[in-house]
UniProtKB/TrEMBL annotation:
Name of the molecule in the record: Inner membrane protein YgaZ
Biological process terms in GO annotation: L-valine transmembrane transport
One GO CC annotation: plasma membrane
Organism of provenance: Pelagimonas varians
Keyword Transferase: no
Topology of the protein relative to the lipid bilayer: Multi-pass membrane protein
Coiled-coil parts of chain: none
Pfam family, one: AzlC
Signal peptide per UniProt: none
Keywords: Cell membrane, Membrane, Transmembrane, Transmembrane helix, Transport
Family: Belongs to the AzlC family.
Native organism taxonomy: Bacteria, Pseudomonadati, Pseudomonadota, Alphaproteobacteria, Rhodobacterales
Length: 233
């Protein structure tokens, strides 16, 4: 196999990933600003982004930290939000499973919504490409997405650190989270899951340690899965 074939796949992935810069830049910057407004240092904000590299889970964790939720609740809630990554990983196994372990570890770390979605579509369009080309495409999509998440999170953290605490942006975090979730409510199953989780979260607000949020998340997922099983899309 010619190296040019692998590089061709890489650059095709890079081109497909580039438009997401328009989403990554403001989203990561906002996270950085809000993280420092919530009391995290610049280093902690960047370390958070590198360790988790999942926007929705990071915003959810930040919201719970603002509410002084116990650490275990924060971690479990972030894991629940990120359960979809396990499904993404399973879906990519037929394509990237034959890779050496070290490459699979790299791919697993960089599986996010963008890299999964772009790769899944491309792999169906190019079924004849070998596993090296598929991995190259995946890494090509990742290149303009994941490193920029770190960079703009750091930029936002520096900006946030310069904003006086009395001019806090507390209101922006829930608004940002709503803006992030709302466009995903495309089907009845999504809407049913969201409505169920909201009602349960309100009804279980009395549960200590903010555990009601976890129960609400599980209830919402159960309702959404059942609606999908019944074909209510």
């Amino acid at each position: 196999m010619a190296r040019s074939d692998v590089m061709s796949s890489y650059w095709r992935g890079f081109r497909d990933g580039m438009p997401f810069f328009l989403v990554i830049a403001p989203f990561a910057t906002l996270f950085g600003v809000l993280a420092t407004e919530s009391g995290l240092s610049v280093f902690e904000t960047v370390a958070f982004s590198v360790a988790v590299i999942a926007g929705s889970a990071q915003f959810a964790a930040l919201q719970l930290m603002n509410e002084n939720a116990p650490l275990l609740v924060v971690i479990v809630s972030a894991l629940i939000v990120n359960l979809r990554m396990a499904m993404y990983s399973a879906a990519l196994v037929p394509y990237l499973g034959p890779l050496p372990l070290w490459k699979r570890v790299i791919a697993a770390y960089f599986i996010v919504d963008v890299t999964y979605a772009a790769s899944a579509i491309d792999y169906e369009k190019h079924p004849d490409e070998n596993v090296s080309q598929k991995f190259a495409y995946f890494m090509g999509v990742m290149t303009p997405v994941c490193p920029l998440w770190y960079v703009f999170a750091a930029l936002g953290a520096f900006l946030g650190a310069s904003i006086p605490s009395e001019n806090g942006l507390d209101f922006a975090l829930p608004i940002a989270f709503i803006a992030m979730v709302a466009p995903a409510l495309r089907t009845k199953a999504h809407q049913g899951a969201a409505m169920t989780s909201c009602l349960l979260a309100l009804g279980l607000i009395w549960v200590p340690f903010n555990l009601g949020l976890i129960f609400a998340s599980l209830g919402g997922m159960a309702v959404g899965a059942e609606m999908e099983r019944r074909g209510l899309l």
